[in-house]
């Protein structure tokens, strides 16, 4: 058997300060007055009692009446000038929505940043970041593989006019140029779960903003702003929503950058629907409980997989989490075809468990050699572990692994 639990520290990794799986609160760059679990329940809802409300309302209006057109014009001028959120009542849904704003307030609080700006998807959020930097003449991006496959494709194809240089973490400082507008990393990375030392990477960036994709870890396990990341990206479709029924993206950042992001969102229209904002705010309230329970399941499955002779290698990050990846000796497509309780599907972060073959789906759009160089082998499977009973999950995986046919 050549199965090992992957040491995701690698040459650049260290253990970050974070909330552990038992809920111990650590000191953050923007200290939480209350524990993370408490903030998850109450952030964004502080004004509800004064309004005689218990549950946050959903505002589905696309437009809002105003009999003061001069005042409305002044507020729109102010927004156009610097992207600050308009004072007073809402104007139009593309400028902002009260329900979405509640989610943004809560997520910023959990990530320890001044602000957050929500979008219709994670890719819309990343696109907005790139457009902000491009508009400043800073089109060059330094990035570390692996990233989510579509993020990789967006950068590599230059679809928004950006140019990317791919490096190992140790090569970031040497890759910076006068027109570098962004450094991007994902830790733990999709799909290999490799980790990087965010503090060391942020130091290497100098004055260039570091964008850390925190989708896999969530603020429950890691708050990148504590370690110097200026921009924190989430595909909120995943753990923040948590139930596989909402698509969204969000960038947590300082207010200066948030103002520019709001201007891009207004101009390009990648707004988040208020129903999605409501579902995300509700999802945040159970985020710590869900992540910790699913992480416990994932750690146990990683242990069992590592001891299984049908498994060649197991990848599981030091910070824990609900994602595992493993390489099989046999045909990975047989495992996908063999599961019955686990759902073979893309995406992750739901209450139910999902499994997929990255080389065929999530990272298919990444050139084959680049995939392999980033550690995404053709026998790698990625599993998002949910809240089912761990013994039931193992029974399903065990049966599916029994169907694998050895590959020469």
Question: Quick gist of this model?
Answer:
With 408 residues, this protein is of the alpha/beta class.
Strand content: 5-15%
Query: How does CATH name the architecture of the largest domain?
Result: 3-Layer(aba) Sandwich
Oligomeric organization of the protein chains: single chain
Please give the order of strands in the largest beta sheet: 2-8-7-6-5-3-4
What general form does the structure show? globular
- Top-tier CATH class of the largest domain: Alpha Beta
* Superfamily (CATH H level) name of the largest domain: Type I PLP-dependent aspartate aminotransferase-like (Major domain)
Distance between the termini: 16 Å
What is the count of helical runs? 14
Structural class per helix/strand content? Answer: alpha/beta
Per the CATH scheme, the topology name of the largest domain is Aspartate Aminotransferase, domain 2
Sequence stretches where pLDDT stays below 50 over 5 or more residues: 6-28
H/E element order = EHHHEHEHEHEHEHEEHHHEEHEEHEH
Give the overall pLDDT as a whole number.
Answer: 91
If you compute it from the alpha carbons, what radius of gyration comes out, rounded to the nearest whole angstrom? 21 Å
Strands, count? 13
Q: What percent of residues adopt helix (DSSP H or I)?
A: 25-40%
How many separate domains make up the residues? 2
Major sheet: size, sense and barrel closure?
Answer: 7 strands, mixed
